[in-house]
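TA notes. Do not distribute before section.
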Amino acid sequence: MEHETQSRPDSLSGTRNSTGAKQPPGNQTATRGRLKQIVRALILLVVIVGLALTGRDSYRKWNQQQQDLQTQIDDLAQDIQTASNADEAQPFIVRRQQLIASKPSLEKIRWGWLLAASLLYGGSLIPGGLVLHEASRLMGYRLPLGPTMGAQVLGHLGKYVPGKAVVVVIRTGKLHDLGVPLLRGSVAVFLETIFMMAVGAALAGGLIFALPVSRWIAWAALLGGLSVTLPTIPRFLRLLVDRVVRKQRSKQTAGTENGKDSHLPPIEPSWRFFIAAWCWQLLAWLMIGACFAMVVRSLPGWDLLGYSETTVLAASMAAIALAMVVGFVSLLPGGAGIRELVLAIILAPVVGQPVALVAAISARVIFIVVEVLAAGLVWAVNRHSSPPKTA
């Protein structure tokens, strides 16, 4: 049974304070409102700090990469000078020219590609919201699409806080504001997340097998991508959801939200939900991969190794998908350090290590900017559309 809204009735008799006197229902509601505001302010503060630290780390890595490139260029210049003949110096000359060509600068960057990448990444945030909307419906709640999409977008900011728990807190909290009990909301968020990671791993596994990387890496990625798709099949997904429900129940006290969370009916993920979630998340990953390919093409020297545009596109999609999935599993804020390592293994053989590392840093900056702007848009829309509060 689906619910259009879910009310949370307060006791008409109010509650008793420490002196035994009853608190009027209005005071009780006001206290809850103040507590919610405090919690939201704390979450916002944590997110802002996480974003600031991630931005600082990206800036530091950008400068470090520039210094490393210049050091390599200078070392190659010395090798050229100490070479005994022209034949011995030729490899150093070629390598030095490649590094100089791939060294990014404001003049060399193709800003049109970066703008297109930013717009494409903004569009990639939409399919995940549609999956969360379907997952909420699976929980028995037919929510308005706009606010559900807003919950998904706002949750992205929690990625930059260690542990990734803030992502769940933000999205579950926004669903709770729409009338979804906390347990049902957390399960809906879990469903969206597991499909996002499974589809990304499967896409990366399939593409990496066709790239010029070590065969053991290709086989590991392919088998790993196929294995993570199993939990999304309805039969296995039911078992996984039941486990999540039991784990979440153990963290809650009996009778949470007047008992509504303590009596969650059996959840039956259907093939309809499976197909819809896979299609939407695949679209999201294709858009993210195309976005990252545009970031790569915006940088100087991306085509120096001579691979075709199709190979560069496939490598970009595979690299960013695997990097984001592994970064998520690592629980580090924004996948710090993990993305660079994965990209060095998957993308560097196609575009070169300097381009791969600079692309990783540039993509992280674009993702942060787009997600902050999208969250600001959601906040502005919610503020404009929210009805005035009454005393």
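Switch to the second chain here.
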Amino acid sequence: GRSACLLLLRQGTKSLVRYGVNPTDVCVYLNYHQCKPAGIETFLTANGQVERHNPVRW
């Protein structure tokens, strides 16, 4: 749910900002995918922000 998503964002916001990703967009995406942590890597890759061999570390 939303709280789980926000917790993930608090842990990963610095990485998200570093890659120029809007945390709100990621939150919506993660909520759609039940906030699974692995979803963030898929999101970033799909949006061309990060390569699969260089995933965001939470």
